[in-house]
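We modelled the chain as a single entity of 182 amino acids. Its sequence is:
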Amino acid sequence: MRIIGGTHRSRTLFTPKSNTVRPTSDKIRQAVFNMINARGWVEDAVVIDAFCGTGALGLEALSQGATFCTFFDKNKQSIELCKKNIQSLKEEDKCQIMMWDSTKLKLPPEKASPATLVFLDPPYKQYLVSKAIISLDDNNWLDSDCCFVIETAKDEIINCPRINILSEKLYGDTKILLGTLK
């Protein structure tokens, strides 16, 4: 798995040795970043990579012009893998890593800037997207103009009253949704 664009283009990322983490493929990440760059969502964005796994989505955003990324995951293996990838790209000064459940967040640190772009790629078919959005919104992590990139199983239904779905695309067994906060 590699960074597909920007300042870290072609740099290799560490990947899990087991099936417990399902990283977004390079092909799907390329398609996602083509869509969100066309909308102007990445440049200067403050990003949250919820359910971060390897951190590939947040690190891709930093490589392509985002200013800061907060990574959330409740899995220790994922947090360690994400840290390793951040260190290998020397992006520690633009990152914050929290071993927190994205569906049960606490308030952000006092000086934290609200996120303008959120990646939500939870385990498939556990219906965690709406819970995560509500947790992020209720705990003041989101800018009022926040945009979302959501990755789910192709047949998973997202029903969250707090977002407007703008676009939906299928890539094999994966569905990508783009949305904004209502």
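As a brief sanity check on the tokenised model: The CA atoms of residues 116 and 146 lie 4 Å apart. The chain has one domain: 6-15+23-181.
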